[in-house]
Design brief:
845 residues; alpha+beta; five-stranded antiparallel beta sheet; 26 helices; 53% helix
Amino acid sequence: MGSHPGLGLKIVVGAVLVALALIGLGWIHDVNARRLLEANRWVVHSYQVLGSTDDVLGMLRDAETGQRGYLLTGNESYLAPYDAAAREAASGLASLASLTADNPPQHQRAEALRRQADAKLKELAETIRVRREGDAAGAQARVETGVGRRMMEEIRKTADGIHSEEESLLARRIAEAELAARVLRAATLGAAALVLALLAALVWVIRRDLVGRAQAEARLRTTLHSIGDAVLATDTAGRITFLNPVAEELTGWPSAEAHDRGAEEVFRIVNESTREKVESPVSRVLREGAVVGLANHTILLSRSGREIPIADSGAPIRDDRGRLAGVVLVFRDITAQRAAELAIRRLADVVNSAGVAIVAEGMDGSITDWNPGAETLYGYRAEEMLGHRMHELAPPGFLEPRVSAEELAAGKTSEVDVRRVAKDGRTMDVAVHASAILDSTGRMIGVSRIQRDVTERRRQQEEIRQARRRAEEANATKDRFLANLSHELRTPLTPIVASVHRLQHRTDLPAGVPDSLAMIRRNTELEARLIDDLLDLTRIARGKLELHREALDFHELLASVVQSSRSELLAKGLSMETHLDAPQHFGSADGGRLQQVFWNLIRNAIKFTPAGGHVTVSSDNPEPGAFRVSIRDTGKGIPPELLDRMFEPFVQGDSTAARAGAGLGLGLSIAKTLVEQHGGTIAAKSDGQGRGACFEVRLATTADRPAPRLSRAAGVGATSGARSPVSVLLVEDDADTAEAMRTLLAESGFDVHVAGGVKAADETFRLHPVDVLVSDVGLPDGSGLEVLRRLRALRPDLPGIVLSGYGMEQDVAASRANGFAEHFIKPVNLDRLIAAIDRLASTPA
């Protein structure tokens, strides 16, 4: 077969160009498809991080809600959200850690969130444990410390940090995915057009030359076999004349079997959505004689039943005279491209359905994208806002925060609070999170702003601040009220105690009077104890209860309490035995507070044991290093339903209105708190109604021993000749208290001078300089603190003792800070007051 001299070269050059173009375009298509899939994967990854963070935060909120419900009601069913959240939190945190492993800063935040969540769950569990053990006040006190709230605030800050970073990454990744999709679409269209043009040109050259047809066809077949797209050719009857290897693979038909078969039998295509048969492009080309393309969403059904999304173009094959000689189809598998497009569509759906406003701006600040969330937030449609600027929605006079484009371009994000006016005239507080939009080269091409209406949140935060301020003011008012109530209740008790104390040391009283005095003293001390219980409950609730530890002999302390209870035992007709048998009975404790515990327990036994009953106080060492006190009675016992609640505030074993001396129901609750603050335990046991009760206290022992106590030579009632003359200035505005204290101190051998206020004290001291000042705090013309300051201007080393009805921690601290050596709370322990005066008078200046 002859040929024109240049025909072979033309065919070769054309074939090479077609092959190179197809290979190059195939490579470009593959690179961009991979880039699109990768960008989409990272977008989905960002949503997973955001969702996982929200899940963890929601679990912790559920856990805290369950805990609060349980603390308020004691109902275990309220713990269901807590239990579920506690179980799921670990897996949620682990998932978040895994998702952020690729991003070290985010991973560090995830690890911080895990530690904070673990700490929060432990804090919730500990509070629940305390509540389950019956200590509702203790559990509430833990809540009121604010530790749990601060931990939750830290958790929210960490979660917001993760959100902020991931939202910035999300905006950039969305931009990258959209750019990759545009490039992919352009590459696909370019490839189809170029291949069709080259093939058409090649076919035209081959058909144009009559010489060398067979060789040209052979070379063409070789070329078409080597390209990456599928190629199918037919004659004018639509019968298959050629399939390249890619077409064989996609259709499932070997070329030999497909030859001379109708194109519709080999190349079967349907609509992806409707499954309706699509007209063959071969038929259209033969009918129209022009280049045609497939509609979108076309599926090729291969011979094996495989469904393959394809893109297709068909072109007529013409001879050298321009007559139609057949059809060539070029088609490709676009599964990856379709997946990427679906991912982008899903991504667009997510952005469009997001509950927040997402606005994109160009580098000049003009709005380029406005999602439905922005339409909902501001009321303006996208077409109304595109090309405008966000600051146009700011209210008059509002100073717009500036966000540095350089910082955004460097990868930093910015969150600011702004004010915006919606289309309906509403003014809103809006939180705006800004991040850079970068192209594939990393160049900043715009700014993405995620915007949320935080007006309600700001209002709630302000309400919370106001509520906290009101609560703090109410708490301060309550403290002032309790301090004043304590003072007003204690002041009348002081002359009673002093007078009874004085009369009890007389030996010439008629029969029966000592018993009456003992009764008066017991009830006066009970009244003072009730006031102390109220103040102690306040201290406990505020976490202000302090212990002053020293080495103690527990047996000596118990013997003292038992002795002070003897008169009450005898008055009620009860008997008592003590068996203090513990070999190890020394420890480090606050003697006054332990005395309060033992006094409460013994008095509780006396109160609930009828006449003729019996109370036993015993001690032992259940194990090395442990000291146990058991206080057992033969009284009415404790009903089983009350055993678990005996140590709750205001819970009492007998709630009838007729019972006498019932108290406030605070003693056992306070005793439990004091024992636990010493690191010990307290428990109640009873076999039921009418079978008595037993209270056990366990404390740790130490090897320390208390220092020997020196007995005071001169007691109450001693004559003035029993001690060296000591002069005392007593400053007290209550006449009854002043007279009772003056008489008692005078009979104890002191030289006493009395003043009723600050001015009178100054005048009296100038006439009669004294050794010791004993002063009330609240005086008609000032305070006892002012008295000490004035008198120390005359005598700098003057020792002072406060004698006051104010007994809150701040009152005692103020006395110490202003130079008073002692602060005695009314009604005063007179033996201790006399001992303090002796000690201060004999201490060298």
